[in-house]
Amino acid sequence: MKVFTFNSYHIQVISAVSLYWFISISLVFLNKYLLSSNELKLNAPLFITWFQCSTSVILCLLLSYLSQKYQWFYFPRITFEFRKTIKILPLSVMMLMMITCNNYALKLVNVSFYFIGRSLTTVFNVIFTYLLLKTSTSLKVMVCCAVIIFGFWLGVDQEEKLGSLSWKGVLFGVASSAFVALNAIYTKKKISVVNDDVWKLCFYNNINAAIIFFPLIFFTGEFDELKVFPYFFRIQFWLIMIISGVFGFAIGYVTGLQIQVTSPLSHTVSGTAKACAQTIIAYFIFSEIKSSLWWCSNIIVMGGSLVYALVRNKELKERNLQIPK
């Protein structure tokens, strides 16, 4: 019998997955605390998003400078080019809408329901891939999408029966799912502008988003909200804001790290499992009461998402084998 032993590769995988889970789950709870906690009561989601985008820009510039000065770590050299900023603007708009809808959804729904509320990303990805990229979809993929839609509908129905549903939150969750799918498609189309460098894309994306968000803060009345916010000059508030900004920046790195150390399929499986853990953690933290059908809806969505990932992975492998070399 072969005895399983840990090696450096296993340690790398466990470390990458654990780091991804920690950063991703922490970011969700940090944003939830900032957006709708009883302690803060800050009704300014656009300002919070603007601050996080600005933090990412500053961190990109800082890490680029440190990388040039010290040789013990690598970060691409960041230089601003207006031409690239304009070319990436369509992607930045998609990212802006994705983050805005995501934060409004997180503000309005429970963290335990957050996974269900944003579970239609896979469905929108299939739809937009067909409409924009003219890529056909197999029957197996369509069945997986139908399963996810059924799980989403069941989850919404059960959340409403429990009396904790926000229809606005559901609509923002659906919109967020659509823009997540569009963001992925536009990323593939626009990343060549920065020579396929993810960090440079992050830099330009966040610059555009920060510039667009700033006037919106005034037009939506959030500036007036900030003027009367009692914790605006508290160190504790800004410490949480800075941590959320750093985690928002770090999620891009740990996502790429997990994909690099494992695979895109493993990343999808890990993300689905992370969402399950996140739901359970929120359930215990907030002492919520959920029905058995509510839990079934989560299982159905997670199952449909996992099977979709396996089906798509198999189809891509078969398609690559059919391409003549």
TrEMBL record:
Could you give one GO CC term from the UniProt record?
membrane
- Where are its TM segments located? 12-35, 47-67, 88-106, 112-132, 139-156, 168-186, 198-219, 231-253, 265-286, 292-311
Q: Which UniProt keywords apply?
A: Membrane, Transmembrane, Transmembrane helix
What InterPro entries does the record tag this protein with? Sugar_P_trans_dom, TPT_transporter
Give membrane topology per the record: Multi-pass membrane protein
Superkingdom of this entry's organism? Eukaryota
Q: Which Pfam families match?
A: TPT
Tell me where in or outside the cell this protein is found: Membrane
Q: Could you tell me which residue ranges the Sugar phosphate transporter domain spans?
A: 15-308
Which protein are we looking at? Slc35c-2
